[in-house]
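Input record (one chain):
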Amino acid sequence: MSEAEEQAPPPTVLICTVGGSDAPIRKAMMRLKPAAVWFLTSDGSNNSKSSLGEVTDAGKGLKFDPNCPADINIRSLPPDDPDAAYSLCRGYLRAARREHPDHRLVADYTGGTKSMTGALLMAAFAEEGVIVQFMAGERNNLNQVVPGSEEPRPMLADLVTADRDFAAAAQAVKSYDYAAARRILDDLRRRLVKSHRTPPADWRKRFELAYRWTGALAYWDAFHHPQAWNSVQAKDKSQDSVLRELADSGHLEPLQDLASSKKEPSWRVCADLWLNALRRGERGRYDDGVARLYRLVEAAAQTQLWQRHRRHSKAFPWDEVPDRLRFGLRPRCQNGREVVDLALHGTVKMLHHLDPSDEFVALYAESSLREGSFQGPGWLAARNSSILAHGFAPIEAGVWGGAKGWVQQNLARLWKDAEFPQLPNALPAGL
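The corresponding structure, as predicted from the sequence alone:
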């Protein structure tokens, strides 16, 4: 295949509503040179006149036009029932796509009743990849255009439907589902690239802000802080609207801090885990929320051990573990030294060993501290039986509420100085 053939545009399927004037459709076929045409005629219901004859009348119908291909399909629409016409148009567009998968679909809504043209227009907007056009002509009165002056005028359907996409993205953000919002905008970007059309500058600016902002928060929500930080960088930071949005909402400094944390335990990380768990709870994902609260309790113990004693619960020196705490532990060699990994209860016991008055231990163990059990709050048992831990039962709303309340009452004070606002649940102002 030659380079010219490889770059040739795909053949066209023209789908057009047919009314009482055939001139615009004849001009459309002359301009587009379609490989196939679907004529959508009125069906003559409610004692109206059908437009079928505009296509089929011997000698003068559209099917006999020299620019009309042999591959034609005639379907009917009710002239005054927009709901039914819309449903039929969507079905016709999908059928045309199935029959001509390698063709481009052009929907021309110039002819027909208002219900027919509106139905085809909205159906074309609802179906991905359909090019929308109408035949525009010169007017010297309010009745009709000058015959023969009609020219196809494509509509930027993706821009017309962009408000719908932005509304869907905003709804996803409202429930803290930044990844879903980004996917919606990703799909919009892909359609725009595929259409080879350049949107207006102000629209591009609006889109890029939403696209980069949702992308950054999607990374952040998944704990990919370095990627979130990198995604909002710009050569000229003073002009970067995403950075300004994060600064105005109180999230720029926390994100930068989290991105540069070098994966060490910190109260900032705990604050981030806390807010992340709350977002899962707001979405009704209680198993995810409680799993994050469990990790938060463990992270708080690890942070306390690091902040107070400069020791990591992972790779804790074996020779610093007292004999009474060694039961069940398995040391390993790291860099020529024996170390051991401490789980949550082991970290709490080590904190108590290093400082019997440790604040975290007192908050965690509550009454069990007097018994020496260090078992922690009661909701941990429910977490251990959940589908995301060791059991097969989902977490109910009551367990989530109890776990959230316990953390808020007992542990949240530990990361108070590292707190920052909850991530936004609305797109930046103006979108």
